[in-house]
Amino acid sequence: MKKLYRSENDRMLCGVCGGIAEYCGVDSTLVRVGFALFAMACGSGILAYILAAVIIPRRSAIEKAEDPQQ
User: Fold this and answer.
1) Which sequence spans correspond to the domains of the chain?
2) In Å, how far from its chain's centre is CA 13?
3) How far apart are CA 63 and CA 25, in angstroms?
4) For residue 8, what pLDDT band results from cuts at 50, 70 and 90?
5) Exposed / middle / buried, residue 22 (Cβ in 10 Å: 0-12, 13-18, 19+)
6) C-alpha distances out from residue 44 to 12, 34, 40, 47, 68, Å
7) Residue 7 binned pLDDT confidence (cut-offs 50, 70, 90)
């Protein structure tokens, strides 16, 4: 089952674009360019990125919560 996580390896700020790229199976540069165009076009791309950074969990945080031995 595919789950959306923030990337811990392919990240520039919070790993949102890298995580979306991993989930969709595309290059993270394309996702970053899309966010940049969205931010320049209407300004809500910045808000969308911030919301995604808050909502999308990090993979390590989920793995720690699922593994009670750690």
Assistant:
1) 16-66
2) 10
3) 21
4) confident
5) buried
6) 19, 12, 8, 5, 39
7) confident
